[in-house]
Structure formats: structure tokens, C-alpha cells
Write a structure and sequence with these properties.
- The structure is a single chain.
- The chain is 83% helix and 0% strand.
- It starts with a helix and ends in a 5-residue tail after the last helix.
- The chain contains nine helices and no strands.
- The chain is an all-alpha fold.
- The protein has one domain (2-233).
């Protein structure tokens, strides 16, 4: 079953990238929605598989709320990713309101990262070292934007807040892997989170420096969707 779901995901993902790189935004919008929806389907399958293949274990885990919180918070994070994806794609149809729509998309994704942080924290606890990772990466993005002459316009504050939150999540995912002795679940989640962070670093020049080359566009779409996929797949390995 998982192979069929992965095949559907790859098909939708490929069609989305094809249409976007050929400037067919409307068709790309539809395939983007389908691709993002596959995160939830794969995640749902992972949870279903976990509860049905290990029913006795799961019943005992019902009394360990950390598993329930992890599943619920990550589910909300993936839903936020789906909604945020659609927000970011809509911007191309309303050029005059582009920054406003972009800001709303960033807010939705930020909320999704907060859900991921809550999920990981409920599972292994919150480690304040993650805040240092978030702060360091925010400084890196600030310095990098000056060197690359990227103008965040009226989204400057939002960009830095978003950067701090997403890389706090990335830092926490790495710490989770260490706490769980690099279990398959934690490795999948960690790599997914890191790719998510890289995708947003690639997104900045696209949105704020008008970099439309396929290197940036495809690089962003590859790292983002693979990152979200690995986070969803982590629950098959739980």
C-alpha cells in the first residue's frame, strides 16, 4: 500500500514541478494541492499501520499521552503545510496583493512549525539548545540577506520571526534524534526537518530577489516536498 501511495505522490509532485517550470500556474496550483494532500494520506497510513500491526502495544500507549500528542500535533503541522502551500501558490494570481498573501502563507507555515515543536516537545521534551539554533540561523539569514542584497520589503520582521521558529524546530528535530539514539523514526523526521529548512533558504531569493532559474525553483520544490514526505513517513517507522 505504501508503495502505491508513494507512486501517487511522485506522480503528483512531478506533474506539479513540470507545470510550474513551464509557467502553467493554474494547473500547477491543482497538482500542488494534490501533492500536499498526499502528505496527510501517507501520514494517516503510517498511523493506521502503527495502530493495526501493533494493537496491544498501541492500547498500552494510549495511556502514554506523549504518543497521542505527537500524532495530533504533527497532523496539525501537516494540515498547516497544505494550507500554506495553497496560500503561497495563490500569490501568483494576484500580483498587486502578493506581499499580503505571502505574509498569510508565512503565518500559516509558522503555525505549522509551532505544531511540530509542540509534537516533538511532548515526545522527548523541549531542549533550550534548539532556541540557540534558531537564533544563530536568524543571524545567518540576516547577514546572508545583506551579502546577497535580498530586500524583504515590509516582510522583514515576519521573515526573521519565521526563520527563528523554523530553525528552532529543526534544532529540536536534531535533538530528538540524539535523545532517541537515532531511531529510524527520528532520523526520518530529522532529515525531513533539515530539508524543510533548506527549502526555505532557497525560497528567499525566489520571492525577494526574483530568482526564477530552475536551479532555485526545482531545488526549493525538491527539498520542501521531500522534507515533508520524510516527516510523514517517520510515522510508519514509529
Amino acid at each position: 500500500m505504501i508503495y502505491l501511495l508513494l507512486a501517487l505522490f511522485i506522480l503528483m509532485w512531478s506533474l506539479f514541478i513540470y507545470h510550474v517550470t513551464h509557467d502553467k500556474r493554474l494547473e500547477g496550483f491543482y497538482f500542488k494541492g494534490f501533492t500536499s494532500f498526499m502528505f496527510l494520506i501517507i501520514f494517516g497510513y503510517g498511523v493506521f499501520r502503527f495502530t493495526t500491526t501493533q494493537p496491544l502495544v498501541f492500547q498500552s500507549l494510549l495511556f502514554e499521552y506523549k504518543y497521542i500528542y505527537l500524532i495530533i500535533f504533527v497532523m496539525f503541522g501537516l494540515v498547516a503545510g497544505l494550507i500554506g502551500d495553497l496560500f503561497l501558490e495563490v500569490q501568483w494570481f494576484y500580483e498587486k496583493r502578493r506581499n499580503y498573501i505571502l505574509k498569510q502563507g508565512m503565518v500559516v507555515f509558522l503555525i505549522g512549525h509551532v505544531f511540530y515543536i509542540f509534537g516533538i516537545s511532548s515526545f522527548v521534551g523541549f531542549n533550550y539548545l534548539a532556541l540557540i539554533v534558531g537564533l544563530v540561523m536568524t543571524i545567518v539569514v540576516y547577514i546572508g540577506s545583506k551579502i546577497m542584497k535580498i530586500d524583504f520589503q515590509n516582510l522583514k520582521l515576519m521573515t526573521y520571526v519565521y526563520t527563528f521558529v523554523i530553525f528552532t524546530m529543526v534544532g529540536l528535530a536534531v535533538i530528538q534524534a540524539v535523545e532517541l539514539s537515532f531511531s529510524l523514526y527520528s532520523i526520518s523526521f530529522m532529515i525531513g526537518a533539515i530539508l524543510f529548512g533548506i527549502s526555505d533558504l532557497l525560497l528567499a531569493p525566489i520571492y525577494f530577489k526574483n530568482e526564477r532559474g530552475n536551479l532555485f525553483v526545482v531545488g526549493n520544490l525538491f527539498t520542501y516536498y521531500l522534507g515533508q514526505l520524510l516527516i510523514a513517513l517517520a510515522f510508519i517507522l514509529l
